[in-house]
Write a structure and sequence with these properties.
The protein has helices at 11-21, 36-46, 62-72, 88-96, 108-119, 127-140, 154-164, 169-176, 180-194, 199-208, and strands at 2-7, 27-33, 50-54, 56-57, 60-61, 77-82, 100-103. It is of the alpha/beta class. The longest helix has 15 residues, at 180-194.
C-alpha cells in the first residue's frame, strides 16, 4: 500500500486530488496539511511514502518543508505540485531533495503515474528540468570554496557566496527560494563555522576563496 500525504492550502485542489486517488488499488491518502508547519508535523507522525507538496504555503515555502521532512525521513518521496514546470522554484525543490513534480491541472493518469514512480524510488522530470539539474550537479565539483571551506554544507556555501556578493538576507532568500528566517540561521551557522565575528569578515573570507563573483 502506497500512503500519500497531501499538502496544499487550496480546498478545491485538495478535493480534486483526493477524488483522483480515492479508490485506486494500493494507494491510500493518509492525511492532509495546509501549511508548512502542519506538513512537517504530519509527515513525521504519519511517515507517508509520498508527499504531494505545494510550493507556496501560507507560512513559508514548500522547499523549506521538503528539506525539513527529508532531514528526519530521508526515504519519503516528495512530489512537488506546481503551476509551471519551468519555474525556477521547481529546480530549487529538486535540489532540496524532491523527486519530481506534477503540474496542477494534470490528468488523473499523469498524477497516478507520478505518485507510483516516486513511491517506487524513481524520479519525474521534464527534459528541461533534468538538463538544468544536470548542469548544477556537474558544476558543484568546480565551485570555488569547496576545498577551502570543507566544514560548510553545500547550502552554507551557497549562502556564503551570496553574502560575499554583498546581498542582504532578503535578497538571498529570494535567490535561493528560502525564508528569511532560514537564511538568518544559515548565516549564523556559517559565521560560527568560519570562526569570524561578523558579516564583513565572512565577506572578506569568501572573496579571498573566490566566492562572491558575479556569474553573469
Amino acid at each position: 500500500m502506497t500512503t500519500v500525504l497531501l499538502v496544499d492550502d487550496h480546498p478545491l485542489f485538495l478535493d480534486g486530488v483526493r477524488a483522483a486517488l480515492t479508490g485506486v488499488p494500493d494507494v491510500e491518502v493518509v492525511g492532509e496539511a495546509h501549511d508548512r508547519r502542519e506538513a512537517v508535523e504530519k509527515a513525521a507522525a504519519l511517515r507517508p511514502d509520498v508527499v504531494l507538496m505545494d510550493l507556496n504555503l501560507p507560512d513559508g515555502s514548500g522547499i523549506d518543508a521538503t528539506r525539513e521532512i527529508l532531514a528526519t525521513a530521508p526515504d519519503t518521496g516528495i512530489l512537488v505540485v506546481t503551476m509551471s514546470a519551468d519555474d525556477d522554484a521547481v529546480v530549487a525543490a529538486m535540489r532540496a531533495g524532491a523527486r519530481g513534480y506534477v503540474v496542477k491541472g494534470a490528468g488523473r493518469a499523469d498524477l497516478l503515474h507520478a505518485v507510483a514512480t516516486v513511491a517506487a524510488g524513481g524520479a519525474v522530470f521534464s527534459p528541461a528540468v533534468a538538463a538544468r539539474l544536470g548542469s548544477w550537479f556537474s558544476g558543484l565539483a568546480a565551485q570555488p570554496g569547496r576545498e577551502m571551506f570543507p566544514q560548510l554544507s553545500e547550502r552554507e556555501r551557497e549562502v556564503l557566496d551570496l553574502v560575499a556578493r554583498g546581498f542582504d538576507n532578503r535578497r538571498i532568500a529570494r535567490e535561493l527560494f528560502l525564508s528569511e528566517k532560514t537564511v538568518r540561521n544559515n548565516v549564523s551557522v556559517l559565521l560560527s563555522k568560519l570562526g569570524v565575528a561578523d558579516r564583513a569578515e565572512a565577506i572578506a573570507r569568501g572573496r579571498r576563496a573566490g566566492l562572491g563573483q558575479d556569474p553573469g
